[in-house]
Recover the amino acids of this structure.
């Protein structure tokens, strides 16, 4: 039996690793794609390779795109400080400054390009709206609009094929993601969620992502092995 | 008065240069974006810079994305020959082999990222369906689907803003494009349409793009200065 192929966007973080594990559990032949978009934490790319291999992705590819040249975000622009959880107007604010312009549009477009080459009609994305409700490109309506675009803009779609964008974590709390990652055997020590990690990948413990991850582990009643203490 | 900002995708070819000239004539403050997607004819990027300057774009940026790593097309894969006009199943065939997977989705996604940074709500693309009817991502329905996606996936859209994707050449013949380019003062000698040019930018005269361009100039009753003879 041939398994249906899926392209899974894999950043090296907890959410995307859990998403890859789910895609595999659901019976997909998974092709993991890491996009280097000029983010400062290139350590994520190394972790993504480790996770793709340990989880059993068929292939892992890295595509570089220098979004830093056209975007402006604390994640790609070294002149902007990464906000700390204590800063005003952070979690829950309208749109956080760590938002990368049109990021999910770019990521999904690249995933679609590879999917078309592979004959894959499923795309998986670790988007989540619970902790990051300020990111417009994590909304279900956005993901559905991308499916429509994909069907109109590809050979597969032009010949009657469908595309599905799966974002299985979309409505999960971080604690639910941590529990599911544990159940699925994700190597949590390899995942990196921090917006501003050290060169060795150690999390800063102060950025929004670190605070949310710690809260998630605490609520799940589990210890985070990535903290290394 | 502040002119509305537009991001114009500029490949260095005749169509995109004409599109940039139209965007400027229509009163836009135009930001030209060239995407290097691993295509073999890097000479296009040099020509794009010349054209952006001569036409009066406010800025020109080049973004590189290594689509060659995930795509398969005669334009990015050196192991595939560029088809010649005499080959069977070329112009008018279902989908030509020079089709780059999800290319316009990727190009527009990058244009959108810059547009969001700039506060531009217009994207210009030199897509054309007359000569290249086999490319699914040149269809009006595709472009409209991208507008919808852009509105759902950006801050600008999330706060009620609109995006427009302009493809003014969409239904024009090559002869009409040549005439309009001439009227607008586009430096035709600088434009490069060839799929397989020499290192000095000289067109091969045999690929589909060369044949269509020559036909366009002939029908327009004009001489193509890029042929250099």
């Amino acid at each position: 039996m041939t398994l249906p192929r899926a392209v899974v966007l894999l950043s090296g973080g907890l959410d995307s690793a859990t998403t890859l594990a789910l895609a595999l559990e659901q019976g997909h032949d998974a092709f993991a794609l890491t996009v280097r978009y000029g983010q400062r934490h290139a350590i994520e790319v190394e972790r993504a390779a480790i996770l793709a291999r340990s989880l059993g992705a068929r292939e892992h590819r890295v595509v570089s795109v220098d979004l830093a040249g056209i975007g402006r975000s604390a994640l790609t622009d070294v002149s902007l400080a990464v906000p700390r959880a204590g800063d005003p107007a952070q979690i829950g604010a309208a749109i956080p400054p760590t938002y990368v312009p049109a990021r999910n549009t770019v990521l999904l477009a690249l995933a679609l390009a590879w999917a078309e080459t592979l004959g894959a009609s499923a795309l998986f994305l670790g988007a989540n709206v619970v902790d990051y409700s300020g990111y417009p490109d994590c909304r279900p309506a956005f993901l559905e609009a991308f499916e429509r675009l994909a069907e109109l803009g590809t050979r597969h779609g032009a010949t009657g094929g469908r595309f599905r964008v799966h974002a299985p974590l979309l409505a999960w709390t971080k604690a639910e993601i941590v529990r599911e990652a544990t159940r699925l055997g994700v190597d949590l020590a390899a995942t990196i969620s921090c917006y501003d990690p050290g060169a060795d990948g150690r999390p800063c413990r102060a950025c929004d992502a670190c605070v949310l991850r710690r809260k998630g582990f605490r609520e799940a009643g589990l210890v985070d092995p990535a903290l290394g203490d």
Observations:
- The first helix of chain A runs from residue 14 to 25.
